[in-house]
Target: SUF system NifU family Fe-S cluster assembly protein
Amino acid sequence: MELDDLYRRVIMDHYKNPRNRGSLDDDSLTINLNNPTCGDRITLQLQVEDDIVKQAKFTGEGCSISMSSASMMTEAVKGKTTEEALALAEKFSSFIKGEIAEFDELEDIEALSGVTKFPARIKCATLSWNALRKGIEHQQQ
Ligand code: FES
Ligand code: FES
Model:
């Protein structure tokens, strides 16, 4: 099987069977973000206790890249401290720009590597990660 084919399967799996899709209690940290170029939107909810991201869930509508990336992101941050979650967002930013090739914390994320060649799609892949960053930075204030 071609690598691209394998990557496409991983992305479509997260798109069709999203992990952590849904809502948390109303008092959870809630971030709404959209991609103005296409109208795709995400609502991310985080439950942070003792500085640990206990739960992360999302709803929204968008392309396969934005929604699969959100699914992967919520998987990757669960159980992390807020500092670790911010560091992961930073790492994803380097990864999606093609500066690093591996993502050991969640290998599924490596399936998004093809996106680095398409600047417009980078915005799709980073939508949920930007929501994460915004939520945690807001929480830390
Ligand atoms: Fe809008 Fe991908 S098409 S986020
Ligand atoms: Fe449409 Fe992402 S902005 S593909």
